[in-house]
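Can you please make up a whole protein chain along with its backbone structure tokens because I've never seen that pairing?
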Amino acid sequence: MKAWIPLALLGLFLAGCQMMEPGPPPERIEVIDIGDPERPEVEDPDSQRPAPTPGRIVRQVAFPAAEYASLQKSGTAAISGRLSLNGTPGTGETISVAPVTTYSAEAAEHALAGQAVEPADPRAREYTHTTRTDGNGNFTLQGLPAGEFYVSGSVVNSRGQRQVILRQVSLRNGQRLEVNLSR
């Protein structure tokens, strides 16, 4: 599998991250192993949908167009930080910032269990912001709207497996936030 495919799938996953309970977001970092061929897929209940991507869980939650319509796609906030795993920088990796919505709860639950979900609806991807890390794992994303977001990146561990590091943050208009994705 080409190295860019898991990164593209990560961006798609983040475009579908779901809303957590109301209140301030928890300050947490999660490390997720991507892809496990031993895990079974969920059957597709909607026969009109395309066949599921092998190794991916079929989404059961429909895209909430009205919820996304209430979100802004850009703003004046910025996030910067560093991606690393066990002190090794994630060089040239993709960083994704996606809004926390009800659509993403299903995907987030599966991701936290180490399971990948089928790609997000293209309408959700319109709200996801991405960038790449530099040679030291540093990144910056500008023009972000206010709201609750998942910030994530992935790094290949010492066993050659790609791991996702995910953090939930809250942004205000004009805020500059430092988010270090490290484990």
